[in-house]
Prior knowledge:
Blueprint: H1 12-19, E1 22-25, E2 30-34, E3 37-38, E4 45-51, E5 54-55, E6 71-77, E7 106-110, H2 115-125, E8 129-132, E9 142-146, E10 153-158, E11 169-174, H3 177-182
Parallel strand pairs: 7-8, 7-9, 9-11
Antiparallel strand pairs: 1-2, 2-3, 4-5, 4-6, 10-11
Amino acid sequence: xxxxxxxxxxxxxQALDSEADIETRYGGRFVQSIEGVxxxxxxxxxxxxxxxxxxxxxxxxxxxxxxGDVEWWDLRSWRKRMREPVVVGAFPExxxxxxxxxxxxxxxxxxxxxxxxxxxxxxxxxxxxVAPASVEAPSDAHLFLVAAKTGETFTAAPRNGAxxxxxxxxxxxxxxxxxxxxxxxxxxxxxxxxx
Length: 195
């Protein structure tokens, strides 16, 4: 795994190319291989990229990175599921930087007994509200739900529609939310954390 910092203003493709040996296809618009690891159309396995936890909706050659963006490339199968609209692997994104420079207000909700953990998550994410789960969050806000502790799980999904990049998301975390707030990068590069 390669982890690097690049300047804002590069496209996602330029950033990748500046740090890794890549081969592209379709006129340089899509990645075929990174460091010799190739996608395979016949096996329905390709390189996909995420920006701040959102799956890219265009060629990486067309997405311009902004300050603070987290770019992640992942080789995965699309045999059973073509899209992964949003993942937990860039947390605390997309709550902080959104997609394409567009951010949303953040609502944190919690179940009984999880108030202090929810408050810690709210501070981390700059939430506009932290309230019990019974209080409805605005439909256009990102939602982070601190659920009952039934083991440690962490999932992400669109709140509505097809989950276009930048649209409202719903993250659900079960576990020690205060610990997550202290170490928000611990689930980096994961689609979800199953229980």
